[in-house]
Design goal:
Largest sheet: 6 strands, antiparallel
Helix content: 10-25%
Distance between the termini: 68 Å
Radius of gyration: 24 Å
CATH topology of the largest domain: TIM Barrel
InterPro entries: DUF5605, GH
Number of helices: 8
CATH architecture of the largest domain: Alpha-Beta Barrel
Structural class: alpha/beta
Protein name: DUF5605 domain-containing protein
Number of strands: 30
Low-confidence stretches: 1-7, 11-16
């Protein structure tokens, strides 16, 4: 390090000795020629670059393994400017780590399952303090675990500057305090703020360098990417650059319709708008990865996929879940466009989605869609648990085949009224269930 350069200062966001697993370690490289910092632990290596934050030049990193992490600070030519180490302490109580992919399901880094029920509130964080507080209060009382939000302000014509990124960062931190994930939409679909346009890589570098260390962050390149007019090569390159910059290895997706290549090796899960809601089972099978399904929006706004009743919204969410996907919520009323600006929820779907979350929380960890059942859709752990949704069908009876040598209890779940009625007795083998002849019913079968 030259005499003119300031020594690198390390901090661990308030921890004097070390940083908790999945926490944020900061290195202050202000006044140095630092271009990159390489972190090492056992066979794990990660590289992070500096970003401008509040007049300082910082490198942020989130250690994901406990123990001693060494680091080396290098300039653009690869010369070592400084070296050091920091201890990664055990995770804080209740911190399960970032969300990862396990087969076709989501789990946290410590193995805790993650039943994703997300919602969209694209620009909630750009509202005034009163509205922001209202949004956070709504989220606390809601069933949602993830908020989709845009890095770019509504109607933006230039890349987000440092002040704008500070707003996004503060919102991500507020969501983290509530135990919520933040899916960050990185680019616009139209205009000059799309991938491949001048400045796009610098934009990505600043966003990822600043926020990748936040363990509750996941990435979405853009909404409706297949309508952007951009060739596949542009999305390929954007995914490559994002993966290269993202030392946190967060979830990566692109929101699009049926023509998009969700099988791309750098896409961790598919994210599909409402016109694909009936194909959730094909998405999971075809790409062998989790599928997040936008089923439309409850409300009265005349847009494609909008204007749904709460009953239809809840029903579509159940359909998606029992087809093996993750269903996400949206709400847009003319007098209260939650999915744009947040605030409060005016619809009736959210309490029923909280009930859906309770049902999923009581289910076994390893669930998948039954590949054989054709008349209705069943989420199951074979021989242990079956959850079958009948939607608009008002069945009086329904046949079901269970293992012969095991006894099961059967419950009729009214997904709209949020009630559970247990049928008398136990069941095994081929059975015919008596059902209440009304829509929005699910059947839950559990091994005794």
């Amino acid at each position: 390090m030259s005499r003119e350069q300031t020594p690198v200062a390390a901090s661990a966001t308030g921890e004097a000795v070390g940083v908790a697993r999945w926490g944020v370690l900061e290195l202050d490289v202000t006044g140095t020629a630092a271009a990159a910092v390489t972190f090492h632990h056992a066979d794990r290596e990660a590289v992070a670059g500096p970003v401008d934050v509040g007049g300082r030049r910082l490198v942020r990193f989130s250690p994901d393994l406990p123990g001693r992490w060494s680091y080396s600070v290098t300039d653009a030519g690869g010369a070592v400017l400084d070296e050091g180490s920091r201890e990664c302490l055990p995770a804080r109580p209740g911190d399960h780590g970032p969300v990862r992919v396990h087969g076709t399901r989501f789990v946290h880094a410590d193995g805790t399952r993650h039943h994703s029920i997300g919602t969209t509130a694209l620009w909630w964080h750009h509202q005034d303090e009163v509205e922001r507080a209202a949004t956070l209060a709504t989220l606390v009382a809601s069933p949602f675990d993830t908020v989709r939000m845009s890095v770019l302000p509504e109607g933006a014509t230039s890349w987000t500057d440092e002040e704008g990124l500070a707003v996004v960062e503060a919102a991500v931190a507020e969501l983290a305090q509530l135990g919520l994930q933040a899916e960050l939409v990185l680019f616009a679909t139209e205009g000059a703020l799309r991938p491949g346009q001048p400045g796009w890589q610098q934009h990505l570098q600043q966003v990822v360098g600043r926020l990748a260390a936040a363990s509750n962050v996941t990435w979405c390149l853009a909404l409706d990417a297949d309508r952007s007019g951009l060739p596949a090569q542009v999305w390929d390159e954007t995914l490559r650059v994002l993966a290269e910059l993202d030392h946190g290895r967060r979830l990566r997706t692109v929101h699009a319709g049926p023509g998009f290549d969700f099988g791309h090796r750098l896409i961790t899960h598919s994210s599909v708008r409402d016109d694909m809601r009936w194909e959730a089972q094909d998405l999971v099978r075809a790409f062998a990865k989790p599928a997040v399904l936008d089923v439309g929006s409850e409300g009265d706004v005349p847009v494609p996929g909008g204007g749904l009743t709460a009953q239809e919204m809840v029903s579509l969410m159940w359909w998606g879940v029992c087809r093996g996907a993750y269903s996400w919520h949206a709400e847009e009323f003319v007098d209260g466009p939650w999915s744009r600006y947040g605030g409060k929820l005016d619809g009736d779907a959210a309490p029923r989605l909280a009930f859906l979350r309770q049902v999923l929380a009581a289910a076994p960890a390893e669930l998948a869609r039954n590949p054989v059942e054709r008349h209705t859709f069943t989420l199951e752990a074979p021989g242990e648990y079956y959850l079958q949704y009948h939607g608009l069908h008002r069945y009086s009876t329904h046949r079901f085949s269970l293992p012969e040598d095991v006894r099961f209890g059967v419950e009729v779940v009214d997904t709209w009224e949020m009630t559970v009625d247990r049928l008398a007795g136990t069941f095994s083998g081929d059975i015919v269930l008596d059902l209440p002849r009304k829509p929005y019913v699910a059947v839950r079968i559990t091994r005794c």
